[in-house]
Amino acid sequence: MTPPPLDERLDAALAPASRAFSDLVFFTVRVAEVDLPLVVLWLIAASLFFTIYFRGINLRGIGWALRTLRGDFDDEDAPGEISHFQALATALSGTVGIGNIGGVAVAVSIGGAGATLWMVLAGLLGMATKFVECTLSVRYRRHDADGSVSGGPMFYLRQGLAERGRPRLGRALGAFYAAGIMVGCLGIGNMFQANQAFVQLRTVTGGTEGPLAGWGWAVGVALAVLVGLVIIGGIRSIAAVTARLVPFMGAGYVVGTFVVIAMNARALPAAVDAILVGAFTGSGVTGGILGAAVVGMQRAVFSNEAGIGSASIAHAAVRTHLPATEGLVALFGPFLDTVVICTLTALTLGVAAVTWPDFMSATAPGVAMTSDAFGRTISWSPIPLAFVAVLFAVSTMISWSYYGRIGCAYFVGDHPRALLGFNAVYCAFVVVGASIELESVLAFSDAMVFVLCLPNTLGLVLLAPVAAQELAKLRRRARRIDGAPR
User: Fold this and answer.
1) Which of 86, 185, 244, 178 minimizes the C-alpha distance to 427?
2) Which has the least CB within 10 A, 19, 115, 190, 197?
3) Three-state SS for 31?
4) Cα gap 113→149, rounded to integer Å
5) What is the pTM of this model?
6) 110, exposed or middle or buried, with CB in 10 Å at 0-12, 13-18, 19+?
7) HSE of 385 in the Cβ direction (CA atoms, 13 Å)?
8) DSSP, res 152
9) pLDDT digits (tens, 9 = 90+) for 79-128
10) 3 state SS of 355
């Protein structure tokens, strides 16, 4: 009898420990026949707190954010490595990924069309969390000997909590976060992206009987080379690529969704109605509402990562003397990622299907479901969609390599050999991700990333007054500029 493949045996061996850890992180309580993940409720509660604490900065800050991107507060002598736009593009490349194409399909297939509305609400609330973590990330970033900067939750947890009289807690939480992002980046931002990119390419070329069947390792090598060529140059190289890649791939996907929606315009009212009605109705009413809300909010959190702190690592590299400016620019992250792109994906699924239930019963959820929605309207559209999906995956892998690298730098400083070694390991995992399917490893890394929200949001709440001080500093600066918003 032929033994199972190595990846299946390894997956089976790791499954018990991985499942136990994942169950712990995503622990649920049952309310009205719905399982509510406490970690998601924790993130939503934090977003609501910051929205109230900063008096609706989610929307109030948009004007200042636009002025910042326009260059009103720029200073050529400011410390940092990249522009505000490059920092935003790098952060977006880490959040706009396969999840925006396939994850939304999973959400509506489980929670119904109504999950979309709750996803949008969670995205809007998450903007306030992003403001706080990115402001603090710039405030407490470290300036390395080679002229580069390193920032993120591990730094503001350690230094910020020390300033607030909790040095031991800050050191412990900072080290835990740095170690967690090093491990977690290999799964959610690497192996999963590589695997899904290969699956989509294989699907549009004939599936398991097509020419790419069995060539996952070759696709992985190609992806690893692309990623390696970019990340070897550090954040400046990463930012230069993402500043061009993100607008291109984002615009391409948005245009594609608009085309599908326009070609099915007669079905748009029914799709919108399904979203609005489905958000507040369902089996048992209360259970239906909670189910749609939990699924939608969980998808939003998975998508924009507000409260997890990963995007703040990219934002920390910005050139500025005013940390709050980058916190305001970061507002666009959850808005574009969740409110815009995820909503357009949901509407595309709805109009292509005419009715949600018929569509959800006709195809499997995930990237294949979104691809099917495009294919129903334009037969050849899954091919360019596969190309966009690969770009989404590559951009996410590029950004997450930087997140893991900064986690490594937290422990080793700017030691070039250690950081080069981390990059090499990261690229090797790209090949692994495209070649085999280690579901247990991916489940473990996903849980590792989301457990980071616990120390991060705790630190954000304790350091919220510091972010408020930085916002007041920016307000004083803005008053010196003619026409600045009050």
Assistant:
1) 185
2) 19
3) strand
4) 43
5) 0.85
6) middle
7) 32
8) S
9) 878 888 888 888 888 777 666 676 677 777 777 777 788 888 888 888 99
10) coil
